[in-house]
Amino acid sequence: HPSNLQMEENSSLRAANCRAKGGAPGFKVAILGAAGGIGQPLAMLMKINPLVSVLHLYDVVNSPGVTADISHMDTGAVVRGFLGQPQLESALTGMDLVIIPAGVPRKPGMTRDDLFKINAGIVKTLCEGIAKCCPNAIVNLISNPVNSTVPIAAEVFKKFGTYDPKRLLGVTMLDVVRANTFVAEVLGLDPREVDVPVVGGHSGVTILPLLSQVKPPCTLTKEESEYLTNRIQNGGTEVVEAKAGAGSATLSMAYAAVKFADACLRGLRGDAGVVECAFVASQVTELPFFASKVRLGRTGAEEIYQLGPLNEYERVGLEKAKKELAGSIQKGISFIWK
Ligand code: NAD
Ligand code: LMR
């Protein structure tokens, strides 16, 4: 008699084959850090996403439980769990998209850079796995400090000879999600109708909302612009303080991560006009990485848009952002070549 485990594996294979025959579009997605505060709701939302056919959930703890739980949802994606470093390569083999929310979160009083010591090593190890097992996958990097972890990932991929700047994206979507929400609040609009470009990076003054480019076009007073910029730049800290030691944004981040991952998958599918902000290798400024609007296509970030016209307040903000970003980027690069 086959064991329960074998029967489960057989039935999940049958389910996958059945869907493959139906020709349903489906991508293979791995989440690294899937049992964490972001990882769990992210896994749940990706299980609902009709563009996902296979969902691999990897963590160093608790992934079997999260996998068993999520696998009972009656949606299309086949879910498989992977636990610990020895299973990293199986988790990654064949993946089209890898989403990384692995790593420690902030506590009150900490900056994102305070997480560098622990998270830099985690991101390095995970990216070595990606370079070996799915070098062509799109990578969505969430682990903080994003301003440094994206350069770390780039250098790891360069070492392995697999680096394609188009496929490495730092996730800054939560800044856009927050900006849309806060601007809508001030303007008395539905947040779903508001689009605020947020450029630069993902930490403090490097988060630069371009309020002069809000859609639909609007006029904000100087006080409103300053209030909104400040609130958007400190949105993460607002949550860290409210959680009072129990972590940072997880639910709104999972929402933002899925919004971004879905855009990447629509791009991979060949949809036209998929544009979102992300922290990518860039020639928009003199810095090697910068967040701005990018067009997502079959090969990743296929086009990186210029910042467009800035007002005086934004120009001053841009200079501050670049100064801090330069140091964070260099710190990430040096970590790999030290
Ligand atoms: P968490 O501690 O709840 O979860 C992190 C998970 O990562 C845990 O399950 C842990 O076991 C796992 N992990 C640790 N080392 C690992 C490894 N080597 N391989 C695989 N998994 C590993 O933290 P969280 O709240 O989910 O936050 C995760 C990260 O995301 C933090 O660095 C946080 O700062 C960052 N974050 C980024 C954004 C953003 O906008 N980019 C937003 C929120 C949080
Ligand atoms: C956020 O913006 O919520 C995340 O970067 C987590 C944090 O530490 O603020």
TrEMBL record:
<dbReference type="GO" id="GO:0006099">
    <property type="term" value="P:tricarboxylic acid cycle"/>
</dbReference>
<dbReference type="GO" id="GO:0009507">
    <property type="term" value="C:chloroplast"/>
</dbReference>
<keyword id="KW-0816">Tricarboxylic acid cycle</keyword>
<dbReference type="Pfam" id="PF02866">
    <property type="entry name" value="Ldh_1_C"/>
</dbReference>
<dbReference type="InterPro" id="IPR015955">
    <property type="entry name" value="Lactate_DH/Glyco_Ohase_4_C"/>
</dbReference>
<keyword id="KW-0520">NAD</keyword>
<feature type="binding site">
    <location>
        <position position="144"/>
    </location>
    <ligand>
        <name>substrate</name>
    </ligand>
</feature>
<feature type="binding site">
    <location>
        <position position="119"/>
    </location>
    <ligand>
        <name>NAD(+)</name>
    </ligand>
</feature>
<feature type="binding site">
    <location>
        <position position="178"/>
    </location>
    <ligand>
        <name>substrate</name>
    </ligand>
</feature>
<keyword id="KW-0560">Oxidoreductase</keyword>
<feature type="binding site">
    <location>
        <begin position="33"/>
        <end position="39"/>
    </location>
    <ligand>
        <name>NAD(+)</name>
    </ligand>
</feature>
<dbReference type="GO" id="GO:0006108">
    <property type="term" value="P:malate metabolic process"/>
</dbReference>
<dbReference type="InterPro" id="IPR001252">
    <property type="entry name" value="Malate_DH_AS"/>
</dbReference>
<protein>
    <recommendedName>
        <fullName>Malate dehydrogenase</fullName>
        <ecNumber>1.1.1.37</ecNumber>
    </recommendedName>
</protein>
<feature type="domain" description="Lactate/malate dehydrogenase C-terminal">
    <location>
        <begin position="172"/>
        <end position="335"/>
    </location>
</feature>
<feature type="binding site">
    <location>
        <position position="106"/>
    </location>
    <ligand>
        <name>substrate</name>
    </ligand>
</feature>
<feature type="domain" description="Lactate/malate dehydrogenase N-terminal">
    <location>
        <begin position="28"/>
        <end position="170"/>
    </location>
</feature>
<dbReference type="InterPro" id="IPR001557">
    <property type="entry name" value="L-lactate/malate_DH"/>
</dbReference>
<feature type="binding site">
    <location>
        <position position="253"/>
    </location>
    <ligand>
        <name>NAD(+)</name>
    </ligand>
</feature>
<dbReference type="InterPro" id="IPR022383">
    <property type="entry name" value="Lactate/malate_DH_C"/>
</dbReference>
<dbReference type="Pfam" id="PF00056">
    <property type="entry name" value="Ldh_1_N"/>
</dbReference>
<comment type="similarity">
    <text>Belongs to the LDH/MDH superfamily. MDH type 1 family.</text>
</comment>
<feature type="active site" description="Proton acceptor">
    <location>
        <position position="202"/>
    </location>
</feature>
<dbReference type="GO" id="GO:0030060">
    <property type="term" value="F:L-malate dehydrogenase (NAD+) activity"/>
</dbReference>
<comment type="subunit">
    <text>Homodimer.</text>
</comment>
<feature type="binding site">
    <location>
        <position position="112"/>
    </location>
    <ligand>
        <name>substrate</name>
    </ligand>
</feature>
<feature type="binding site">
    <location>
        <position position="59"/>
    </location>
    <ligand>
        <name>NAD(+)</name>
    </ligand>
</feature>
<dbReference type="InterPro" id="IPR001236">
    <property type="entry name" value="Lactate/malate_DH_N"/>
</dbReference>
<keyword id="KW-0809">Transit peptide</keyword>
<dbReference type="InterPro" id="IPR036291">
    <property type="entry name" value="NAD(P)-bd_dom_sf"/>
</dbReference>
<dbReference type="InterPro" id="IPR010097">
    <property type="entry name" value="Malate_DH_type1"/>
</dbReference>
<feature type="binding site">
    <location>
        <begin position="142"/>
        <end position="144"/>
    </location>
    <ligand>
        <name>NAD(+)</name>
    </ligand>
</feature>
